[in-house]
Amino acid sequence: MELLWDGLREGFRLLFTGNREVIEITIRSLLISGSAILIALTIGALAGYFLATQRFWGRNFVLSLVNTGMGLPPVVVGLFVAIMLWRSGPLGLLNLLYTPGAMVVAQAMLATPIVTGFTVASIQSLHPKLRLQIMALGASRWQTIWLLLREARLPLLAGVMAGFGAAISEVGASLMVGGNLKDTRVLTTATVLEVQKGNFEMAIALSVVLLILIYAVNLVLTYVQQRERPA
Amino acid sequence: MPDVRMAVRDVLVRRGERVILTVPHLEVWAGEVLAVVGPNGAGKSTLIQVMALLERPAAGSVFFDGHRVEGDRLPYRRRMAMLFQEPLLLDTSVEKNVRSGLSLRGVPRSEQARRTAYWLERLGIAHLARRPARSLSGGEAQRVSLARALALEPEVLLLDEPFAGLDPSIRESFLSDLEGILHEGRLTTVFVTHDRAEALRLGDRVAVMMGGSIRQVGTTAKVFAAPVDEEVAAFVGVETVVRGRLQSLADGLATIDVGGAAVQAIVPALDPGAAVLVCLRPEDVILEPAGLESHPTSARNHLRGTVRRITTVGGQVRVALDCGFTLVALITKQSLEELSLGVGDEVAASFKATAVHVIPRGT
Asked: What is the per-residue pLDDT across B91-147, written as a single tens digit (0 to 9) for each?
């Protein structure tokens, strides 16, 4: 018990005195997971729009893949990305392995199916004729996509938040493709490292930051959803 | 020759293996309201979506102002506007909704503001401008949707059952507003409805659809008076519907000029000279051999006519007469035999003034 109390006290001290390492790791985490979610949003929103509005052979199969992807084990994604980026692998020339870039790729792969799945559900929850009405108003293909996604913005935002939450809190993939080096250390991987070193205070401080971030994200989400809920 | 604004030719639409629409030919004339009527599932909505270039037919073409629509359909879509049964508003303010189509079409902002303000005012919803669209009632929302369509100043307005979702009380004021706007602007309109009363009121011409094809196209009066077959007759209701003009009104009893014949009817308060539709149920018409009419009776209307057409509907017989206008009578087979009527015979028809239903008509 004492370990926990000491750890908590020391953890909060590190946080509120603005420990350089904690701040650096936090910012790196936000940058990597933020970039990953932007990529996931771009790909996922378009793929989700396509899956929700088009009928084609094999659509249900693709949808089942997306649903599976929403619960993709991070370790598996990490392994796959690591193999692809390995020096002798197909994308080895990019020299991305053990860089923040590799972590962005891995986290984006993790978050994309989540954003895609939420987009499919949110577009399908709109009135089926709304797309026709928007086209009849004179919208081009891209204007139609933009307006429909805007109509689905709230559930879409939920997808972004869920994707961001998954990206920033996963550890397996980041460890595998980032390697837990000085330049690739993020909140989760750094926590693992500190525990291994016996630095529980540091580990607790990092965990608290992670929890606060995830809480903040969900606070914003809840606030927006409640405010915009139809009367 | 009428000025053809839009046409479809040899259009075929399939759902899976099933053919749900076949239209060899249909024209929409400039400035007219073409009502497309038919029971649910007749293919009316599919047809109007093909015309709106929202549904690509398996075969056939759409023509706009004489040009076959090929390749990029967006420029053509931007010359039309469509109103659905559901308001389908965007999740933003009323004003932004009305502007949305204009902004998509690249209309300058000052012009957007002018037209939006005009149509909000014109449809009596200016006070709602700042309200979020989703806070509106069904009737208000449909007015916003109409304002959004009209603000586009389309060359062709397409209406797909725009009144079907509205309460009867709201429906009436919506209908009369739209009627005024359509006739005032001579706006070329295609109007899909399953309600024949709406078709009668708004339509200049009527196309009757059944089972995915168009059975009959003609002026409203013609189609309602002379349906081509039994199924069409059963749908439109066998009725005489003719245009007339009020000549005089005394003690609530009006004399209406219908194609040269004078018809007496009970009418609501109307000014002489007013244009009206005269509707008469065929079962209210009594036929007698010409020259042998028994007098007097309580029927105020006695007309002479020539038998043009005799058709059997169910167990009964429809007799269409030319009395200066087409008058339809529904009689039994026995009466037909006793009167020994044939095409070309002259016959006397009578009906009561109270049996005539008069609808005021805008033009």
From this structure: 999 999 999 999 999 999 999 999 999 999 999 999 999 999 999 999 999 999 999
CATH number of the structural domain spanning residue B286? 2.40.50.100
Residue B138 near chain A (CB below 8 Å): no
Q: Which residue of B lies nearest to A141 if distances are taken between CA atoms?
A: B74
Distance CA B272, CA B23 (A): 42
Q: What is the CATH number of the domain that holds A133?
A: 1.10.3720.10
The alpha-carbon gap from A60 to the nearest alpha carbon of chain B, in Å, equals 17
Range of the domain at A136: 2-228
Q: Tell me the C-alpha to C-alpha distance, in Å, between residue B108 and each of A18, A143, B76, B101.
A: 52, 17, 19, 12
pTM for the structure as a whole: 0.79
Residue B361 Cα, gap to closest chain A Cα (Å)? 30
* Interval B316-360: pLDDT, tens: 888 989 988 888 898 998 898 888 888 999 999 999 988 887 877
Contact between B158 and A136 using a beta-carbon 8 Å cutoff = yes
Whether ipTM tops 0.90, in short, is no
HEC-encoded secondary structure of A134-152 = HHHCCCCHHHHHHHHHHHC
Q: Report, in angstroms and rounded to the nearest whole number, the Rg of chain A calculated over CA atoms.
A: 20
Please give the residue of chain A at the shortest CA–CA distance from B151: A137
B134·A133 Cβ contact <8 A = no
Do residue A138 and residue B134 have CB atoms under 8 angstroms apart? no
Token code pair at residue A88 = 């002798």
Residue of B nearest to A131 (CA): B88
